[in-house]
Amino acid sequence: MPKTSMLRAAEPFLAAERDAVYKAIFTRRDVRDQFLPDPIPGDVTRRLLNAAHNAPSVGFMQPWNFITIRDQAVRERIAHAFGKANDEAAAMFPEHKRSEYAALKLEGIRKAPLNICVTCDRTRGGKIILGKTHNSNMDLYSTVCAVQNLWLAARAEGIGMGWVSIFRDADLKSILGIPDRIEIVAYLCLGYVDELYERPELEVKGWNRRLSLEDLIFEERWQGEP
Questions:
Q1: Which own/partner contact pairs does 85-92 have at CB distance under 8 Å and 24+ positions apart?
Q2: What is the per-residue pLDDT for 2?
Q3: Which pLDDT does position 107 carry in this prediction?
Q4: Is 189 helix (H, G, I), strand (E, B) or coil?
Q5: Residue 4: what pLDDT?
Q6: 16: number of CA atoms within 13 Å, CB side?
């Protein structure tokens, strides 16, 4: 009996398939306030998490966990923790930028029907992990790949997603019962949307602009400013 191959042909996608991948990449947006109240069905949530779980990870360690949060009372506590941290963040900016910062909507914790906290277990796989021997942060980078997979899958499903990063980790760990050894990588808000900005919201509102790709590509060695 012939031996079954564990490999498959690395054929390029058909044009329509390829275009769909690039469409997800180029139209993905950080959603904050455009969420609809419609709940995300369980099978769709499962597809999104399965996409995240199929992200690449160094040494195949798969260091992530996903905490799904729908309870309104829990989200209220998290939104309160965000509010405290957001006030601290606003005070860090120069005075002339504070009003502009205050006008930005930076989270959708209450409005999005599904919140997901993505964590990284830095002890998973043991002390010596293939590919992590000389860069101890590879588990964190791997978990970020899972977040990106989730984001692109959400876009393909017509679901908006926003990444909330303005927290004190200790507050979030206390609310969600996360052990000290576990690193919080992302707090995400997800929900259906009927509109998305054509360009990133912070670009539309003048907070920043997209850099030129040509200025970011170097050939053979570093060529930036000293």
A1: 85/166, 85/167, 85/168, 85/171, 86/166, 89/166
A2: 56
A3: 87
A4: strand
A5: 67
A6: 0
pLDDT at 3: 60
Q: Sheet with 114-121: list strands edge to edge.
A: 64-69, 114-121, 182-192, 159-164
CA distance 208 to 200: 9
Determine the pLDDT at residue 1: 53
Neighbours of 81 (CB within 10 A): 20
SS3 180: coil
Q: What is the pLDDT of residues 163-188, one digit of tens each?
A: 999 999 999 999 999 999 999 999 99
Q: How far apart are CA 61 and CA 122, in angstroms?
A: 10
According to DSSP, the residues that pair with 226 across neighbouring strands are none
Residues 175 and 77: beta-carbon distance below 8 Å: yes
User: In this predicted model, what pLDDT tens digit does every residue of 201-218 receive, in sequence order?
Assistant: 999 989 999 999 999 999
Report, at the CATH architecture level, how domain 30-194 is classified: 3-Layer(aba) Sandwich (3.40)
Output the CA angle 158-10-159, nearest 5 degrees: 5
| Structural tokens at position 125 | 């796989």
Predicted TM-score (pTM) of the model is: 0.93
Distance of alpha carbon 197 from alpha carbon 28, whole angstroms: 9
Residues of the chain with pLDDT under 50: none
Element holding 47 (H helix, E strand) = helix 42-53
Contacts of 10 (CB under 8 A, 6+ apart): none
